[in-house]
Design goal:
CATH topology of the largest domain: Lipocalin
Radius of gyration: 21 Å
Number of helices: 5
Largest sheet: 10 strands, antiparallel, barrel
CATH superfamily of the largest domain: Calycin beta-barrel core domain
Number of strands: 20
CATH class of the largest domain: Mainly Beta
Shape: globular
Helix content: 10-25%
Structural class: mainly beta
Amino acid sequence: MPLVNIGRIPSLAVRELLMSRHLCSPLSRRDFIKALTMASGAVALGLPGLALARSGPSAVNGNPAADLADHTRDWNWLLGNWDVWHRRLKERLVGDTHWEEFRGKSALWLAMGGLGTIDDNVVELPGDTYRGLTLRAYDPSIGKWSIWWLDGRDPTSIEPPVQGGFQGDTGTFMGRDTFKDRPILVRFRWQDIRGPRPWWEQAFSVDEGASWEVNWRNYFTRTAAEPTPLPALEGAPRDFDFLVGSWEVRHRRLQHRLVGNHTWDSFDGTLVNWPVLGGYGNAGDNVMAFPSGMVRGVGLRAFDPKTKQWLVWWLDSRTPSTLDPPVRGSFADGVGTFISDDSLDGRPIKTRVVWSRITPRSARWEQSYSADGGATWELNWASDFTRKA
């Protein structure tokens, strides 16, 4: 596989993103971080054997459109509902040889036109059954998939992603993490993906990949070709039940933010939203017909029982290797308010998202920025939702 020339990529990718953002709004801290991530890919991770090794047609024929079309089918084999048999090492990185076996369930949906996936999981760990969710997205700028895991037992954080791709019937994905305060490499492998029983494996390395300890394997048996939500948990919050289903969306978006601009773009979109994590989360696939072209994205929400707050992450198809920092908040009197700290054009701001006007067939979403700590707010985006199904 040819290697990408890394000498020019960071400055080129950042420059291109700066130019594109200049046309519509000032560059925020999130956008700049995304640019660096998009530019450097696996180089930033320093992964042995994977740094900037691109797989797929884009590395061969230089045709981005063909590359994207090809990768929309990467996960089709995992679409649907599955029974899962787990085999998990009891203790990790201590020379343990004792394994426990248990069952689980999984349901996977495609998102972002096939360049993303969302899967929901029941893990029947002995004495500690829990829910978890996987989010995947393909980034054509680095020729790799990023895979994030959210553990329902700690819904306030998403684990660092592993990145990689498929060669034949095997997918390999690697990333950096820590385990009990030790830096490690993490490796995911999917094997026999076109067989009747595909399987997944997780391994850790403490010596930069020179050796690996396999600590988990899952074997999948399909139960339905079309995905359906897994059973809800008793006592799950009902705040976002209104959003489950298919929607048509009418957007109005301010062209420039916090500069006194009054010019708005109007465009259409759609949303398909699923319950996940037994009702303690939901995930939505968004399509937006921006004046500059089609944009897709995934909204991921998870409820934290400890704080009684929701966390909401956004994954943008234009920078699909990076998740936005979450906004946090809750509902009161039928209105959901979610706030986070951010920066725009080098100055600190606050972001506020509000859900309101909620009925069985409609809802409104609004985003505002504040440059004075929340004393005043400028509305920069409003979306009106009308239910399709």
